[in-house]
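Changelog note: in this version the structure field was regenerated for every chain. One regenerated record is shown below for reference.
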Amino acid sequence: MKIQIVLISGLILLLTLSSYAQESQPKEIEDTKYGFNNKHFIGTQGFVLFTPFFDPSPEYYQLSYGYRLTSRDELSIEAVTWAYQGPLGRPYGPDYEQESTSFPGDVKTYGGGLAYKRFLWKGVFAQLHSYAFRQLYRDEDKEVIQKGFQLFNTLRFGYHFKLFKNKRWFISPSVAATFWPVNTNLPESFQVEEDKYPNYFLFEPGLQIGYSF
């Protein structure tokens, strides 16, 4: 319930700030204040670069395309696939990603969603993501045993750094709270482990890298 309140409050805050800014700032000031003059961008999470070095591999790949509605508001379409070996709600500590708390297999996820980003001050931003995922529950031999659905939401706070002289390349380190209110049709052996932990995770790190054009 606490994480639901955080996510809903964050969404209300973003919508309120967006509405207030559009009403209170002249368009010519709004379009140039933060210097994001390129309307389009593509990007991914920096975690993609490290995927080959993990064992077992998270099989993580992500691609996003975004459009800058104003210099302070961005809307993105994101496609994601990844695999995970245990409950996503395992907190940092002794249970985090430990084999003893993992599933008897893994979950392969495919899907996509939308993200809305609001720049709050200079490069400081808040971003809300919502994804729909197809879940493939696999045994230890990577054979699919059941299929399900997951609705996955993220509230992210970070800072946007423009790089190099032309400022088209950028990186955006961030920290996030994630919440999945819908997670269906887990095999019984997976559900036993899933039920031990909450359906949210706090302080997930992120590092978006991208190019504006």
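Spot check on this record: Residues 2-212 form a domain with the Porin fold (CATH 2.40.160). Confidence is low (pLDDT under 50) at residues 1-32.
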